[in-house]
Amino acid sequence: MPRYLVERTFVAGHTLPDREQDHQTRLIFDGNNTAEGVTWLHSYVSGDRRRTFCLYEAPDPAALRRAASRNELPIDRITEVSVLDP
Prior knowledge:
Blueprint: E1 3-9, H1 19-35, E2 39-45, E3 51-57, H2 61-70, E4 77-81
Antiparallel strand pairs: 1-3, 1-4, 2-3
C-alpha cells in the first residue's frame, strides 16, 4: 500500500482536540478513515499546534482527501513517500 505524508495547517478557530477529546475523536476519525481504505500511522505536531505532518497508508491521494473531508480536516499538501532503511 502506498504511503503519503499529509501536511495540514489549522487556522484560527480550528485546533487539534485536547487530551480529553482525543480518544473519542480518534475513534470517529478511524472509522471514517477505514471507510475510505486509509490507515493513519503517526503524526508530528508543531509547537504551536497549528501544523501537522501525518503519515498514512492509502490506496491513492483521492482516498486521503475523502477521509479528510469526512473528518473535517484541512489538507495543504499530499506527498507520496517511501521508507529509507539503514
